[in-house]
Amino acid sequence: MNHCIRIIVDFNVLDNPEFLATKRPYSFTPPNSYNEDLNHETAAAFYQNSQCSSKIASNYSGNNTQHHEYDEYKKKLKLDTKFESKCQQSKYSATSFHTSNYLNSKTTTIESNIVHLMFHNNGNNEDLDCTKNQGAKNTLVHQKSNNLVTFDYLQTFKIRSKYFDELAKTENEQIRLNIKDITKSNVDSHIFEECINVLKNGWNLDFLGIKKEEFLILIWLLYDLTCYSESNALFILYKNLLPFIFLYLTDASFFDELNFFNVDFVNHYKYFLPFIYVLYDTIHVTYNSIVKELVFIEKEQVTTDISLETHDIDEIIIRITPRALELIINENFEKKLILLNHIVCSYTIKGIRISRDNIFFTEIKDLDLACNPFHENTSLKMQTSFSVVFNNINLIDKSLITSIEFEKIKISDIDFNFCMALRNLKSLILVHCDIEKSNFFFRSLSKNFPKLRALRIIGSILTNGFFQNLSLESLNILDLSCCEYKSDLKFYKCPEMKYLQEFHINYSKMNYKIINSMMLSAELKVLSMRGVDFYRLKYFENCDNWKDTFEYLDLSRCMLNNFFLDFFSANIIAEILILDHLCGITHLKRILSQKSLQRSTKKLSLSGSLVDADLLSVISGFGILESLNISALEENTNTLLNSNYNYLNNFVSLNPKRNKLENASLSFINQFNRLAELDISDVCLKAGFMAYICLPCLIISLIKIDISGNLLCPYDIFQIGLLINLRHLVIFLDNEVFSEFLKIYGNLRCLNLETLILCSTTINKNVKNLIISQPLLKKVELRKCIIEPNIFTINCSSEPVFFENKTFIVSGESLDFTQS
């Protein structure tokens, strides 16, 4: 990206705006601070030396009329001393200001009401003190007339614009735009100048003179510019604009109450969304554009990040914790709460997710961990207060809410009543929740939620009333994991589940009649019975008409009695078969010996099971098997892999991780010339093992490999670069070994790599250069890594463009280095 581009903005509304571009003839060095107290001769010389080309600069420096215009412009930018002194005397902090003492909707400007509400920092951070920049205001804006604004867009801007970034990526040194190319708002040259000055320098008190009718124009312009900041400058800007929004929306005709029903707010609500990030100092607000979640969690530390990457939000899912709800209530600031309600409810709310610790059952990939009752103390539940915080229920279109997910909470009566009114609910997930009226709730499922498709009740006591009211023709997914049936079996009656496609009872204690009811569904495709003790089920008489063909079948950790062992050993068809930690190798051999499975199974997992040579012989007969997981086996894996069994050449994925392997044992993979995925993490391989992987066939076929937890030598790292089609790499890098590699071979470049996951690695300058040198990289994840200070500060990098449109995940949390 160019270090500088001159942008000329024309404020005449033209049908065909003229674009002027000049090729960059010289390199550009960013100027030092521009002090407005300079006399105009010095200023003219400084301006001349600071431009992108000397030719352009000379056009400005030789004109006395322009010097006069500059003097007039400089005078206009001078701060009124009374506002400066008021700001210096103010002792209000961001955590304590209240607008009720200063709101006066009858004034035409905001300056008289707002000066006491500025955001200050009582610490040592200079960026947070609004008085710091008043003596020397840095600006590169030069206006030749009321209809033309010229400025240089520099790397030194405290707040950057992705719109201007795109212009800077071109080979142009100068470009001319019409204002309507930038924004559809009715912004004039004065507001535009002030906005550019704030992008350059951060917050300043000149905004105090903004008129109420100009406020919408300003935030509209900020929105269209797609602003971001490497520092806290953008956070400070919106924090200091926050009181403006209260004044802007205050309506004198309604006794100075906030009026959210005026045309401006209703039609332009999306421009107000960034204020939600700065409303509460104790709440961290983020937006996940991938899953469309607006997230509210309590702050563990002071954060001042803000993102305007929310441009095209049309619908949201609210994700919040009970603690965050409690903190909002404790703030006890009515106008903030009203603003929160109206901004959030301006969007289509599709779902609500509340979890005690912001961890959700449905997001945990390890089912054993998710279902483990000793995983955490599920008895410590906080009562929800969603309907207390979002108390303007009339603003929420309940007919559009299609999903509810509550976890490890006590559902209050008011939230219970709110949920019962969601007639169009399609997904309901309750995990370890306390519901005072649970019996009534479960008996009313079919009546209140006629369109329900997915029902997940996790960790509850279920009675006959629940099953008798499952007459939901639309229900496709039923998950009763970790549940226990406690009722009189004589009165059990469950309606026929004709359209049930998925049935999950992982680690549950169900009755045989319940299982029988679900197994009769002709549409059943997914059956997960992980961790079920079938010895408890003694009264099965037959399995006539049970579904025996599955897309996904999970019997991991099951204790199979004779009845179920007979059923799952007779002509079962399963495309994906999961038999992890299955009790008894005899059961394994009997199940896997079925010809029907050998003809149908494409993916087989035996992780943690007891596997011997005879069982491997059985597996070698699976004719269409593409994926095999033999991780963490109980048997000596080296002996097994060195057995003389030839597998049919269909393998696409192989996972022997968490076994103890010798380098030579990897030679068995040379028979798989279609292998695309290989996971050999944590198998204690010694340096030099890549020689067994970089075979002619695998160099072309391998797309995804995990070699973390093993020792590498410089030549191993070099051989990674030989994998032509490698797109996904998981690796541990020892800094000394990697430094030695760089000395011998130069940098590692994987031309097709899209995902790089670094484990237990110290991220220093060498590793950073490795990351930014991958041309197609889209995602970087750092697991248990140590990051040296300032490594990912873009100001210190010559490749800031690399960080755009990339996903960075550090310890499970997504980061955006272009905005933080």
Major sheet description? 22 strands, mixed
Shape: flat
Radius of gyration: 32 Å
Category by helix and strand content: alpha/beta
Portion of residues within helices: 25-40%
Question: Averaging pLDDT over every residue, what do you get?
Answer: 78
Count of separate DSSP helical elements = 29
User: How far apart, in Å, are the first and last alpha carbons?
Assistant: 19 Å
Provide the low-confidence segments as ranges. 15-139, 794-798, 816-820
Quaternary structure classification: single chain
Estimate the strand proportion.
15-25%
Number of strands: 38
Description:
By secondary structure, this protein is an alpha/beta fold. Among the domains are: 4-227, no CATH class; 260-367 and 377-436, no CATH class; 690-820, Leucine-rich repeat, LRR (right-handed beta-alpha superhelix) (Alpha-Beta Horseshoe), CATH 3.80.10. Helix content is 28%, strand content 18%. The strands form 7 sheets. The chain has a 22-stranded mixed beta sheet. Strand 23, helix 20 (512-519) and strand 24 form a beta-alpha-beta unit. Helix 1 runs antiparallel to helix 2 (54-61) and helix 9 (212-224) runs antiparallel to helix 10 (233-249). The chain is flat, with a radius of gyration of 32 Å. The relative contact order is 0.05. Residues 15-139, 794-798 and 816-820 have low confidence and may be disordered.
